[in-house]
């Protein structure tokens, strides 16, 4: 990895360019699968960017074992089904999530927690490969500190850009929301509302993230409820998590 890659990341003018450069750089380092996930101090209001969308189709990002088990320290953790034997403390749901990720290609990887001084959010990167544990330890793991340095630069620049009005809009446009055909009856904004609610955000948080007033957000949400035939947030969230929408 050359210094011009670092320069390109640090000088990225928009979230889309930054994300694309990040994916290309990590791929060149042997890490083709990228999950960037952060939440607020209460473990809510998740912000997710990934090129491995399918693993969140049936489970909300706030339930990702990465947040609970990898972010209590800054230690780099080996992740993926290939390293499950190292983590005997994981419960059935966490193991099921990790094993499902393996069916989508994430078999061996590393979790890189990070948090900037003064930031209310925590999380970081979970980077994956389809390698065997032995190949991963031989080919990728020795570069972990260099990879962590790169990800810290990306994280810092991402937060800088997301703090601006334009960057916040770009970041929101790149957030992941899985598609289900039952949602076709909803408008694009109503779909966004349903997925953000399913990820644990309050109505006020949804409004802030989408750049609209709480009253407008409530109108969209009520309209979506009517179209889906649900009475409240709990029923709507259950439909999302059950794959019904």
Automatic annotation (TrEMBL):
GO terms for molecular function: DNA binding. Residues 179-244 form the HTH luxR-type domain. SUPFAM superfamilies: C-terminal effector domain of the bipartite response regulators, Pheromone-binding domain of LuxR-like quorum-sensing transcription factors. PROSITE patterns: HTH_LUXR_2. One of its GO terms (biological process) is regulation of DNA-templated transcription. Keywords: DNA-binding, Transcription, Transcription regulation. It comes from the Bacteria. PANTHER family: DNA-BINDING TRANSCRIPTIONAL ACTIVATOR DEVR_DOSR. This is Autoinducer binding domain-containing protein. It comes from Palleronia salina.
């Amino acid at each position: 990895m050359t210094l011009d890659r670092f320069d390109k990341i640090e000088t990225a003018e928009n979230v889309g360019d930054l994300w694309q450069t990040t994916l290309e750089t990590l791929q060149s380092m042997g890490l083709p699968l990228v999950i960037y996930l952060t939440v607020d101090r209460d473990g809510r209001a998740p912000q997710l960017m990934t090129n491995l969308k399918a693993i969140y189709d049936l489970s909300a990002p706030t339930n990702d074992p990465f947040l609970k088990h990898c972010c209590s320290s800054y230690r780099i953790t080996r992740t993926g089904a290939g390293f499950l034997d190292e983590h005997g403390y994981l419960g059935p749901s966490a193991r099921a999530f990790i094993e499902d990720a393996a069916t989508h290609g994430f078999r061996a990887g590393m979790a890189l927690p990070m948090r900037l001084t003064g930031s209310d959010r925590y999380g970081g990167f979970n980077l994956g490969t389809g390698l065997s544990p032995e190949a991963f330890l031989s080919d990728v793991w020795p570069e972990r500190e260099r990879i962590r340095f790169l990800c810290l630069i990306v994280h810092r620049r991402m937060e800088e850009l997301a703090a601006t009005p334009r960057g916040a809009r770009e970041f929101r446009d790149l957030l992941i929301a899985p598609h289900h055909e039952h949602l076709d009856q909803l408008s694009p904004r109503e779909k966004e509302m349903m997925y953000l609610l399913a990820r644990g955000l309050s109505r006020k948080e949804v409004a802030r993230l989408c750049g609209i007033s709480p009253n407008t957000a409530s109108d969209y949400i009520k309209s979506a409820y009517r179209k889906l035939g649900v009475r409240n947030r709990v029923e709507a969230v259950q439909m999302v998590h059950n794959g019904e929408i």
